[in-house]
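WARN retry 2 of 3 for item q-0093 after timeout on previous attempt; input resubmitted unchanged.
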Amino acid sequence: MHPRSSHRGQNHHMAEFLVVTGMSGAGRSTAAASLEDLGWFVIDNLPAAIIPSVGTLVSSPGSETSRVALVTGRAGGGEAAELLEAVERLEQGAHVVRVLFLDAPDDVLVRRYEGTRRRHPRSGAGVEEAVASERASLEGLLHRADIVLDTGELNVNQLRSRISELFADSLAPLGMRTSVMSFGFKHGLPLDVDMVFDVRFLPNPHWVDDLRERTGLEEGVRTYVFAHDEATQFVERVVELIESLIPAFVREGKSYLTIGIGCTGGHHRSVAISEEVARRLRADGQPLSVFHRDIER
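OK item q-0093 returned
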């Protein structure tokens, strides 16, 4: 459980801080722009040593800044340790502090750098070596992160959408944010899910001519999927499991919970099941968002 200070001084202004870090090429610039569009006060490329000073300024009497996104620059080696220390000092100031770590598979990061011909911040030899070196140095930050967002399978618009779903609302009163993500196993298992459920045991609408080009958001596909008793039974058991686990996750200080539901391609079964799981959880009072990673593939 990450430490969360609960005391406040009489004149202390409490703010929400989101520290955005992660692998070079994983989308920090897109995340910064998205957060700014959502109304966060964004400070980009911020050295770790300055972060506690920002916390002090925001805490000052009369400050009206309530949500601050601190997008770090390169955080390798000693800089990563310095960033971890800065996060701890922010938490000691009675702020709500979250760490977002943007990640992607190494081969994706290499392709992005080779495709744009940009120089990797750690380039001394090849890009592959630079990515491997950076990943090793950021291991502590990865383990500390409240949410690890895998951008490997996301385009720019999808990443913006994902950031909006996660951070559009205030973090403080919610305690924990829950997301349900549909995906296709053939496109790879998402790195940023906490629990994964496989619905490939259900009959596949892909083999029905009238349904092949449609998605699980459409009534015809949904009707086909839930015409099988196994689908309803599966949803009931998943919802029951999630509802039983959420209080335990909250007690342990978890800030974000992402539930992955996968089928073969991510178009039909996983989409329909994810929507129904989300509908039932919302009906029981659980705030959450839904993201369909592969629905447009």
